[in-house]
């Protein structure tokens, strides 16, 4: 994944402990949290699930958003998560798949790895340039 300034929320579980952070490399940073390489709050309270993130145009904007969100009431953060991720799924695996170039339709259908027999969902609007026009065959992996 290219580096983009992101604000993110990690959770220990649904409605559990929350952590708001900012980074320019979301995949790397979440991996560090998941593997307890980051000393402090997330390691101490086992806050490892990526439940929400937002990409920004600049690090200055992302930092300002993070600081503002850290002042928010807990209920506002939960409302934000549930608006985008009502089941509180860990978004890390989807992020990894997007980084490989997988189409969003494949990710939603639960495809975890390349399988030449898998197809895009019927109405997939895959933006991948590796997909043959008019074809439902999956060509998102090289």
Q: What do these coordinates show?
A:
- This protein folds into 2 domains: 6-95, GIY-YIG endonuclease (3-Layer(aba) Sandwich), CATH 3.40.1440; 102-142, no CATH class.
- The chain is 35% helix and 13% strand.
- The protein has 6 helices and 3 strands, in the order ββααβαααα.
- It has helices at 26-34, 41-44, 59-70, 74-84, 92-100, 104-108, and strands spanning 6-11, 18-23, 49-55.
- The longest helix is centred in the middle third of the chain and has 12 residues, at 59-70.
- It is globular.
- Mean pLDDT is 79; it is low at 111-125 and 127-142.
SSE blueprint:
Layout: E1 6-11, E2 18-23, H1 26-34, H2 41-44, E3 49-55, H3 59-70, H4 74-84, H5 92-100, H6 104-108
Antiparallel strand pairs: 1-2, 1-3
CATH topology assignment of the largest domain: GIY-YIG endonuclease
Poorly predicted regions: 111-125, 127-142
Main CATH class of the largest domain: Alpha Beta
**SS element count, helices:** 6
User: What is the mean predicted local confidence, pLDDT?
Assistant: 79
- Could you describe the largest sheet, including whether it forms a barrel? 3 strands, antiparallel
Helix proportion? 25-40%
Named CATH architecture of the largest domain:
3-Layer(aba) Sandwich
Coarse shape: globular
**Can you list the strand order of the major beta sheet?**
2-1-3
């Amino acid at each position: 994944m290219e580096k983009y300034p992101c604000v993110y929320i990690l959770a220990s579980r649904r409605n559990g402990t929350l952590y708001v952070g900012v980074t320019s490399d979301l995949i790397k940073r979440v991996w560090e949290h998941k593997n307890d390489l980051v000393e402090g709050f997330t390691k101490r309270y086992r806050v490892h699930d990526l439940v929400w993130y937002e990409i920004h145009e600049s690090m200055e904007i992302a930092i300002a958003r993070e600081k503002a969100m850290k002042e928010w009431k807990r209920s506002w953060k939960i409302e934000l998560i549930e608006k985008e991720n009502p089941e509180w799924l860990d978004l890390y695996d989807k992020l990894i798949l997007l980084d490989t170039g997988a189409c969003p339709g494949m990710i939603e259908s639960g495809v975890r790895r390349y399988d030449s027999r898998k197809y895009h969902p019927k109405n997939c609007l895959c933006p991948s340039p590796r997909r043959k026009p008019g074809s439902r065959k999956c060509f998102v992996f090289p």
